[in-house]
Design goal:
mainly alpha; 9 helices
Length: 210
């Protein structure tokens, strides 16, 4: 494959869309949620909750990034230095915290969504700490978090979800290869991203369900 395909994969599965993708996976994979929804609740989720989540975890981080560049705290968004990456991650976490505040009072049927939102915050904080020592891949943190979410759902609901787990693991491999082929990261950065994302989400689900 040429670089244009790897770039397309990196853009299409950008870290800013992973929280929304994970939210949709939880929503459509947890029977305790989708079997309890009436039409009004479904419309609220589709037209209110999902857009709010995307604003908090996608749009706000982009806006914060622009402010940091304008304030000359960050030299570049496209080619950030290690210090730039720490600033970008830290300010992005503000949007993630806002998402947690918005969704922290979900009804009992939505406990898996609560765990997911908490998990992405844990992953972001762990990523910020890891960025002090390595150029951790945010792409693999994101997709690793999706893998960890599916594992957590299986544990929480005592369900077999091997086809879904296999699909997201396959996607994780493709994204990791794309980042390596583009020379965006060393292999260690990619693996650390997988571990941080997967461990953060899986741990929140498993500890929360005790």
């Amino acid at each position: 494959m040429n670089n244009s395909i790897w770039k397309a994969i990196s853009y299409f599965f950008h870290p800013i869309i992973m929280p929304t993708l994970g939210f949709l996976i939880v929503l459509t994979s947890d029977p305790y949620i989708y079997l309890s929804l009436d039409m009004y609740q479904l419309k609220k989720i589709l037209f209110t909750d999902i857009p709010i989540l995307f604003v908090c975890t996608g749009i706000l981080p982009l806006l914060f990034s622009g402010v940091l560049v304008a304030a000359k705290r960050v030299s570049s968004i496209m080619e950030p230095t290690e210090q730039d990456r720490r600033w970008l991650i830290a300010f992005s976490e503000l949007g993630f915290l806002l998402a947690f505040y918005v969704f922290h009072r979900l009804p009992p049927a939505g406990v898996s969504l609560y765990y997911f939102i908490l998990g992405i915050n844990v992953a972001m904080m762990a990523t910020l700490i890891a960025s002090l020592f390595t150029k951790i891949s945010l792409h693999t943190v994101g997709i690793g978090g999706i893998v960890g979410t599916v594992i957590g759902l299986m544990y929480l609901n005592h369900m077999v979800m091997y086809p879904l787990l296999g699909s997201v693991m396959g996607l994780a491999v493709v994204i990791g290869v794309a980042r390596y082929k583009l020379k965006a990261h060393e292999p260690a950065d990619i693996y650390i991203g997988y571990i941080v994302g997967m461990a953060s989400q899986a741990a929140v689900f498993m500890l929360g369900s005790r």
